[in-house]
Fold these 2 entries.
Entry 1:
Amino acid sequence: MAVATPASVPLAVTVDSASPHESKLVDETLAGSFLDELPERLIGDKAYDSDPLDRHLAEDYGIEMIAPNRENRRKSQDGRRLRRYRRRWAVERLFAWLQWFRRLVTRYEFHADNFLGMVRLGCLKIMLRFL
């Protein structure tokens, strides 16, 4: 999982197994932030549309969660906030940039800590481009 700026500069990254749901990994991702301050808003896909997650982020971190509604839920967000969802491509571009590094495409590292180190190294190279 990753958190990125609108310019696709990584702010936080983390790796985990495929079994936990993405919404359960938000705290761990925010804890792995490269900066001291957290963003004001997070934009996620439909998997992040849950009232408990929205409340948790607002109360504990002061972060507004923007995610489109799932089909089986009533409309809980207005269209003005969802216009920001179109900016989600910035995170997809970050993942595309991380795919330039062969060690990340083909996961050579067996241990998750070693792989996370390689992901952070890739993020560092991306961040150095913007300095």
Entry 2:
Amino acid sequence: MKTLLIVRHAKSSWEYPELPDHERPLLEKGKKRTRKIIEFLQSKKIKPDFVICSSAIRARETAKYIAKSLGYPVSEIKLDPSLYHADSQLLFDQFLDLSDDYKTLMMVGHNPTLTNFVNHFLQPPIDWLPTSGVVCLSFNADSWESIRTATVNVEFVVFPKLLKTD
């Protein structure tokens, strides 16, 4: 069994219009919403074995925040610049050389790529994966390379606004 967590980065800041898109940081509001997601993931006892992330600052900050909270070493997050402007095929290609020792993978990136990717598995499809949204899929597979054709189970699709606030 392989488990895949697809995470869209948290809400980012447009406060500094001179910054290139790749360099935009997170908003505090984005961190607060992500905290709700982290609490949800902790309640599900989620712990990734490997984390791969876009090199954009907002994705890196999101990955570090979630990984640290789930007990994954931040220094072991793999940054992949190709995930910044990836398409669904490139996401599938990420699995080709991934160690099958990893049972749970977390991938942090951007729309529209993530929405398009998760919609390969979701019925009905979602319109848009919002910021800090997470889709968790489990595959009846022994290798990551075979997930495309494996039986898939949607464990959960969660967005910050779906979670109760206290």
